[in-house]
Amino acid sequence: MQPWTDPGPASARWAPSTPLSxxxxxxxxxxxxxxxxxxxxxxxxxxxxxxxxxxxxxxxxGGGKRVRPTLAWAGVRAAWEGGGGHPHDGDNxxxxxxxxxxxxxxxxELIQACALIHDDIIDASDLRRGxxxxxxxFEKQHRDHSxxxxxxxxxxxxxxxxxDLVFAWAxxxxxxxxxxxxxxxxxxxxWRAMRTEVIVGQQLDIAVEARxxxxxxxxxxxxxxxxxxxxxTRPLHLGASLGGADERTVDLLCQVGQQxxxxxxxxxxxxxxxxxPAVTGKPSGDDLRxxxxxxxxxxxxxxxxxxxxxxxxxxxxxxxxxxDVERMRxxxxxxxxxxxxxxxxHGLTDSANTALHNxxxxxxxxxxxxxxxxxxxxxxx
Amino acid sequence: MQPWTDPGPASARWAPSTPLSxxxxxxxxxxxxxxxxxxxxxxxxxxxxxxxxxxxxxxxxGGGKRVRPTLAWAGVRAAWEGGGGHPHDGDNxxxxxxxxxxxxxxxxELIQACALIHDDIIDASDLRRGxxxxxxxFEKQHRDHSxxxxxxxxxxxxxxxxxDLVFAWAxxxxxxxxxxxxxxxxxxxxWRAMRTEVIVGQQLDIAVEARxxxxxxxxxxxxxxxxxxxxxTRPLHLGASLGGADERTVDLLCQVGQQxxxxxxxxxxxxxxxxxPAVTGKPSGDDLRxxxxxxxxxxxxxxxxxxxxxxxxxxxxxxxxxxDVERMRxxxxxxxxxxxxxxxxHGLTDSANTALHNxxxxxxxxxxxxxxxxxxxxxxx
Lengths: 381, 381
Known about the structure:
18 helices; mainly alpha; prenyltransferase activity (chains A, B); transferase (chains A, B); two-stranded antiparallel ribbon; homodimer; Farnesyl Diphosphate Synthase; magnesium (chains A, B)
């Protein structure tokens, strides 16, 4: 059975020209069908695995903006709308259902699930999307049954393995998607680069944090690998390759993806300091409270006067009250860092838009991609 | 560049009929070349990654019996020696170098590296193959530089990610091996099953341990998934599929692999209680000291008298002196568990040998496989 076989109405309607806005609903159906298939295939091994399968299903189907599958689908459509590919190119069996490409791009959410489950272990987070993190779910099971050993360690061990499992399933979902092998082979470099870059970016993030680096170049390098490449560049690259895009289109989308992805993370940095908790769902000035050295905060430190630097250093990570947050916001604004990051965001999105509008792609996909990128980089949550 | 391009003398000699005994040396060369390739490709991202690349190279090239690549190569040769495949079957470019298959089977060592790195985190092990485990390497780096935060947590976080990285690279190494795509597609089910079974087997092991189960059936289920499938069944299955074996050969090798793999683990259980520390390199009665519930120990508990059970329960996990070990060995022997496990090992290997000798495969590969299996199941370390 293939992951897209009759999963639901949104994917049943799937066509080569389906708008980006329909990815999240269809992706949800396809992921649900794929996880049910895995349950049929492996659930029988032992009842103990139900916990893993339930935890993964709750986690994967419980939320997420589906940004990566949406951008990957944009890559597929770009290939088909002026990028040198065709919906039936590479198809030797007289008809590749568009659902095959939907399944292929949806597999990115399984890599994302592994990344988040492992990040939550690394950050010792209790909550994700308003629910207990996967390691806490296993920890609670251990505690509820008063099993032997440490509940905390049990939770971490099982969550680590659950992440490994879904990381392997991401590959399987792509391979079983039904996209012609010839195109899957062409898409391997993007897949290889994406997985290595996100892991290496996370390693870099932890190392830079441990060293207490305040170098803006370090924070931008983390942004590049951990977020920009993984969230935008490689998904666009992957989709374009799956769709059979020509080289110039792949190059264009990689360049544009790097700009959109960087702007996306810089917006995140702004929201981490200036975001409205009512909208972001996170505490106000979250990054100030945790003391995370983002590109925004490192530029504030770099641009500030000696007095401002001292004030920031004293406050970062030790902030508790909203009044403190307000005070630090004023300092960061005074250093000019907020404006600088805002200018950078606009500069990046402008050049991405210009590159797309001046390209050979059809206006249909250009407008949708520009619109989606603008939502990503101007979002308030 | 492909992983097998000019890696060294042993792989340069590689031929369709190269004996199983030559896999470890050639595998070492191919792995070293592949890791150097990864270093060229990703090492430039940041000097901080040197630690990861060095730790992975030391770990992967520092030891290991290469059991899985050897059995996978046995599968490839079985396909070519009576199993319905041919060295140049599926080759459209006029010559697949045998090194492509060597690279494909060597990729199993990268999955093994991830499994061991993550297991060492789960078991909080300090040493592996006489060297510090990967999480301890990162922990030491953190401590040596007196970086911010907990050295222990830093070590675990970086090792977790290093394991993820090499798990992704295993896929890449298989895909880039140069084995014709048509055969790679045929090999995916074995690859998919192997990765899921080893992870799920490990989850089961931890859960069974936490529940303190003494059910022999539970320990045998862990043996089946965590060891037998992963160590023997699926490597043989993978190799046979890569070599283009027919269905009856795949079925034969899967059945034989299950028997060899189970015997392999039961031998491990025997060595864990009765092994000679001078040969095993582990403390005498290691499993008695850790209190691990192996198939051997669970059968002793199941077969023992009430008095023997009590004695075992009191001793397990709290043993310190060699005298205690000696006493418990006597108890286990008295329950008949040692003989029972020994009989099981011989029964399994005998039926595997019979199945192979009565098969349609050429005596060349049958004899080598029987010989290798006998070394695995009669080993003293």
